[in-house]
Design a protein that fits this description.
Largest sheet of chain A: 6 strands, parallel
Mean pLDDT of chain A: 87
Helix content of chain A: 40-55%
Shape of chain A: elongated
Number of helices of chain A: 14
Number of domains of chain A: 3
Distance between the termini of chain A: 61 Å
CATH architecture of the largest domain in chain A: 3-Layer(aba) Sandwich
Oligomer: homodimer
Chain lengths: 348, 348
DNA sequence: CGCCCTCCTGGGAGCGCTCTCGTAAACTGG
DNA sequence: CCAGTTTACGAGAGCGCTCCCAGGAGGGCG
């Protein structure tokens, strides 16, 4: 860690001189050391350590055209998403998997349309090997922006597209929202419930509509009085529940599209003297621990492997990067739907 | 945006050829255009647009030794911090200010000692111009790791140091925890309260100890029965409050070192039939909106400009970067303490 | 009208690395 | 023991950019 004059970092050249070999050999050793005599490898290693040599990433990138970095784009008109445990967990999964691939996470935070311009430039400028993005609302321009940058990209959650039709095929990783919802509703049916209501999420988010679709897969043609819409928040869930109780006082079960909404619903149900699960069985979605386990009774809900989804996003992206899917004629890898799992607790 | 052969990005050379000038001139135009005849500037601009030229950051970095990127290091044994609105806000402030400085945010997430090794290598490897870090616990090795990397760095929150003594001077940005606490307690005194208890945060976090110090600044030699320690969580605050009520049933005010703890305390107070603020006045710290405004009564608390602190961290760092404080003899800029403000709501 | 000074512009070196290619050395087998 | 392989290593080009320096054009002044 010493030996280098203060201020200047040692270069390959310096290491080569010290080890009495050529630059090329040092480079080979530093990058895996295959095809170099063990004795030489050792000599180079020693020199590297003595000088405290660390490769200059910029020089490397210049010739390899690989950056060892991936952009994670947070489009976030609502600041909320960042404090959402769901999102944090996904980022953590991404971060962990990137470490495995020796890549860094460059966080791009978009707060408005102007930022999209900036981000587009950044992506095009060749700073990163690829991009990971989260699509929130259907009318969000982000997917388009990223696609235009012609850089490998993977989405978290199935992106919706502004305008109908022309849905470009972009790889994404999503939980099996629809299947999970089906399982949740089937569970309620198996419990003997007949009047199963649904508190849906915002209609412009695919996760919400997919869950709604799963509900309808099982219940086919549900009574409109059994439907209410929330906004994925606790308060929204409470309001929706209140509406439902008016529209359909005879309901005996509720499937809420998120745990947060379920907890709001639970609050209202108890407020109106309905026992859970005796009078009304309740199922949430997400298995957001801090919520689902904290309620009384704890929430039966649909678990998704959030961190695993983060891992998958990175693996998918890395495959695209190494296969260079920006080449004309290259086909992008398919998307991945991760399984969900019904977690039975006390509420249903 | 067209005109370049698919796959290859146009280089400076290509733009120069197109505009009929030299590489050097194009470079000058791209970097501000001073010292170039307006007519030429225009010609180059046109060529840049026609070719869709974007500078190659790696090549640039190689010669300028500037990366246009800053590492943000999250040391986080407890995952919690990421979901903490406090932290999210600070990151947002950082992100915004970095945009102003045309720099990117590289997120480094450390989950354990092994990661420190990785991070140390990364920082030393010359990938970023500087580092922003958050010190959480006093026994955290992160400050040491960063300091050893000899890279400009600014801390969020006054870092504590493992072991006593030898406190290296490292610039940080922190709220005036002590002053804010003083103000909070003085407010309670002004209200005529005489038995003012304190729920402190963890003793190994400077933000907690500083607030405690502020409390003692005003109350000088407080009755030990008026002191309890929490862990900055709601549950911890509740537990501490319960203890306080046993130790000192005659207390007439509580200053909690965080809003979350205050809300826990509030719950216990009401549970035991104490009216807030009539019987017991309560003041929190942080002005974490989602908590302080949601309680009943809303919390009187000490506000800190969290996002502003993020901005300041970046500005401080950028100054260090441009002045190259790693040069021997350079003095690091001083730290900044941002003011706090008492926000009066219903609880005191 | 010539000289000097200023202002622009281009040539060229060089940042630190990878990678191709050529050659020397080591090995194989008949 | 030598021709033919295989393997190990070094020389050198070049990635795309910035920046120093030299030189040319033009303007001001004696």
């Amino acid at each position: 860690m010493s030996g280098s004059p203060a201020g200047t970092r040692p270069t390959l050249e310096a290491v080569a001189a010290r080890a009495g070999v050529s630059r090329a050999t040092v480079s080979r050793v530093v990058n895996g050391g295959s095809g170099v005599r063990p004795a030489l490898v050792e000599r180079v290693r020693v020199a590297v350590n003595e000088l405290g040599y660390v490769p200059n990433q910029a020089a490397r990138t210049l010739v390899t055209r690989r950056h060892g970095a991936v952009a994670v784009i947070i489009a976030e008109p609502e600041f909320r998403i960042f404090t959402d445990p769901f999102f944090a967990q996904q980022i953590r999964g991404i971060s962990r998997e990137l470490t495995v691939h020796d890549s860094q996470l460059v966080l791009l935070w978009a707060e408005g349309r102007d930022d999209y311009e900036r981000i587009s430039r950044y992506l095009t400028g060749g700073h990163v090997d690829g991009a990971l993005a989260f699509s929130v609302h259907n009318d969000d321009a982000l997917p388009t922006v990223i696609l235009r940058a012609r850089i490998p990209a993977v989405f978290g959650g199935r992106p919706g597209w502004p305008g109908a039709g022309r849905q470009p095929s972009v790889p994404y990783v999503d939980a099996d929202n629809r299947g999970g919802a089906r399982e949740a509703v089937r569970h309620l049916v198996a419990l003997g419930r007949r009047r199963i209501a649904h508190i849906a999420g915002p209609a412009d988010q695919t996760s919400a509509t997919d869950r709604f679709d799963g509900y309808r897969d099982v219940l086919l043609d549900p009574d409109p009085a059994l439907l209410a819409q929330g906004d994925f928040t606790e308060a929204g869930g409470a309001a929706a529940m209140a509406r439902l109780l008016e529209q359909a006082p005879d309901l005996d079960a509720v499937f809420a599209a998120s745990d947060l909404m379920a907890s709001g619903a639970l609050r209202v149900l108890r407020g109106q003297g309905r026992r859970v699960p005796e009078d009304v069985a309740l199922v949430g979605f997400d298995d957001m621990r801090s919520v689902a386990e904290a309620t009384d009774p704890p929430l039966t809900t649909v678990r998704q492997d959030i961190e695993g989804m983060g891992h998958l996003m990175v693996r998918l992206l890395m495959r695209m990067v190494t296969e260079d899917t920006t080449e004309p004629g290259a086909r992008t890898p398919g998307s991945v739907i991760t399984p969900t799992e019904l977690v039975r607790r006390g509420s249903a």
